[in-house]
Specification:
Blueprint: H1 13-28, E1 36-44, E2 62-70, H2 71-76, H3 79-91, H4 95-108, E3 117-122, E4 150-155, E5 163-167, H5 171-185
Parallel strand pairs: 1-3, 3-4
Antiparallel strand pairs: 1-2, 4-5
Helix pairs in contact: 1-3, 1-5
Amino acid sequence: MAKEEEFAAPPTSFEVISALMWIMRTKAFKIEAHRTTKLLTAVDGRPKFKPALLECFFGNGIVWSCAQCMAGDLVRKPFSFAVKIVHEAIKEVTEDYIKSAIDYYELTRRGLEMENTCWITKWSRLTFYDVDFGWGKPQQVAPASLVDNLAVTLAQEKDSKNIILSVGLPVSVMKIFQELMQSVLKGN
């Protein structure tokens, strides 16, 4: 995949899965090579502050990292290229990054650009499998539905190392995405 010297720290499974999904999604949508494509990753901002926000802090502490490149580079360069971009984008989320993002929003009131953009979030560490509403703990957890540009990773079951990737795609590209993923997973 990638040479060790390319990374200050080894990429996580989430970063590798995110990069693969981003490449396959870009191919499935047939985004033109000269267009910029983005992968926004939800990052927990709480531990980024010094001192870190307290565990009892109520509310979202999520910030979006932004990996971006030309679609042609993403689909033609080695897989390690995409992994490194995702890895670096997540690593760049610091207290200053978060403050800058807040300042930018306060000044412009602009939301995130959506064209050729995919969002991914990791639910694998959330405690869904510990929830019991009186009829027992869940056997499987998954989002009820997804918007067309969102992907979610979560554990297949409690304490499982298997990861489920749920991707919201329009019907028109789902079959293409599925075939691309199956081809890669089969080693073709």
